[in-house]
Amino acid sequence: MSESTGSEGRRFPAPEQLAASANVGPDVYEQAESDRLAFWETQARRLSWTQEWDEVLDWTDPPFAKWFVGGKLNVAYNCLDRHVEAGHGDQVAYHWEGEPGDTRTITYAQLTEDVCRAANALLELGVQAGDRVAIYMPMIPETIVAMLACARIGAVHMVVFGGFSADALASRITDAGAVLVVTADGGYRRGAPSALKPAVDDAVSRTEGVRNVLVVRRTEQDVEWTEGRDLWWHDVVDRQSPEHTPEAFDAEHPLYIMYTSGTTAKPKGILHTSGGYLTQVAYTHWATFDLKPDTDVYWTAADVGWVTGHSYIVYGPLANRATSVMYEGTPETPHRGRWFELIEKYRVSILYTAPTVIRTFMKWGEDIPAGFDLTSLRVLGSVGEPINPEAWLWYHQNIGGGRCPIVDTWWQTETGAHMITPLPGVTDLKPGSAQTPFPGISAKVVDDEGNELGDDSTGLLVLTQPWPSMLRTIWGDDDRYVDTYWSRFGKEVYFAGDGAKKDADGDIWLLGRVDDVMNVSGHRISTTEVESSLVAHPAVAEAAVVGASDPTTGQGIVAFVILRGSAQDSGEDLVQQLRTHVSKDIGPIAKPRQIMVVQELPKTRSGKIMRRLLRDVAENRELGDVTTLTDSSVMNLIKDKLPATS
Ligand code: 6R9
């Protein structure tokens, strides 16, 4: 839980000029309140449907929702062709910048043609509506082209973050039953090519059902080639016709699967569908950021492999005909001012990123942003974890020049789109708080029994009404969907897994995960996943992992391990080996910050590890309640083992 919920007293009212011309004004809340379904129906009309729906919401079998029942549309058509048909073909969709400095400017007309070619290529490869396509790519335009090509032909994309390991990719390919993998030789990160194809080769060799691997050439690294299976993107896609007639799919046709960590080692495949998802990402993108498609330059500085990339690099911005910036690499390459240089170069007016990045910029110092012209910025956004007031104020002052509202957007892979956020032309901002449920969203704070709490209290965050971009299930596991999200307080209340506080004004402050999912730099990693990996190492008998608060990454991974009797070496070497092992196994993001070798772990009578106590240790606090431990003396043993610095 974050400690940043104190009563930071300052308020930042909406800038007058912005408020006067804002896309949405204060009356939007009342409109949504008076008839929630009619409100969402109005937002759905922002899209182009080939067949109108018969019913806005079917909630007769909760928690299985159907939105815009009977409606038909093509998601890619809504993101591309319709803008071209309306005369905006020459508008830039993406200013893409590679890490080495190469650039590509892609208009809506070009992107439409590229997506049509890719759609024709997928069809030639036998991909059909409903088939799953894995996408394991760097941050290059072809990633977006591949996603939209899937959407266009009704195939379901499953993007796996390029930082994840071959293991993670293999288990996701298997779970989703992917028939095709789209990848690249590699991408640029931290000034060097970073290979992707070897992980795909490894993953695919351990799975069944993948017929082809389509490879984009980006870094020109050497790649192994499996004849008959592997195909170059430029060989197959470039020769296709740039025309393709989009087919309309049902509003509830699956659009994509995105895997996210749960409390068990097996990741959950969150399923999103078409009509409701596109409605809510388009509307939130337009309202939360006050997007003006003719004049704004919009930049979500995040990876496409995160849900934030899906909703706010790809679908929301394209549905709204935004001009976006997309950047391949890391913020410190080739120098720490790279992002600010891009803001200056493209005159970015809306920037959306994660608190962990802001805290890194803080560490690097305000002189760096001060060296660039950032006056084009007018709205800033934050996502991924609670933003502590200190970072908020720094962001506001040093990047926003004291004049840009910051929208702190709370949402999840599961919610698909913004759920709790200020509105830039309406809300009096409070640094550190996401404040207000989005219009048409019903978020409440409840106690352990599900009773709604009043102002000035702390409890659990729940969503009490279905929303258009909600997840529809966990891929292949309806029971787990019900158990995980819709059982704690009954089948009609969504349990978000986050703690929340309502302050005296009724504003909501998010307090972090209440389950055992860690949040490292905005990435969710389950404790169980890291524990499983550690225990898989021959030297480790048992492991317990906790997320300890970390000034830069939000949370850092701290592991406690008990060695096997046969493991002689318990020194630094072994600890390094274990860290590398986890990094290779799951991905660098999961590498523990610290590993402590201990003799025993604190457990309850039912055998559950009491991570709460280990978190106390990892964060150097007095121990909380130890009465449910089988043996309370183990905590003394653990504390005795600690290095003085921990
Ligand atoms: C979009 C995204 C979801 C979890 C969520 C919460 C945390 C996200 C937040 C926030 C406080 C915010 N979270 N945004 N906490 N304030 N503005 O991050 O999705 O990767 O699924 O993570 O992230 O704990 O439950 P996802």
Overview of this protein structure:
The structure is a single chain. With 646 residues, the protein is of the alpha/beta class. The chain is 30% helix and 24% strand. It has 21 helices and 30 strands. The longest helix is centred in the first third of the chain and has 17 residues, at 108-124. The site of ligand 6R9 has 24 residues, from α12, β24 and β25. Ligand 6R9 binds next to α12, β24 and β25.
Helical content (DSSP H or I, runs of 4+): 25-40%
Q: N- to C-terminal separation?
A: 19 Å
Structural class category: alpha/beta
Could you report the average pLDDT, rounded to the nearest whole number? 92
Characterize the main sheet: 8 strands, mixed
Strand order of the largest sheet: 12-11-8-6-7-14-15-23
Weakly predicted, low-confidence segments:
1-7
Query: Over the alpha carbons, how many angstroms does the gyration radius reach?
Result: 24 Å
From the spread of the alpha carbons, the general shape counts as globular
Assess the beta-strand content as a share of residues: 15-25%
Distinct ligands, ions and cofactors found in the model? ligand 6R9
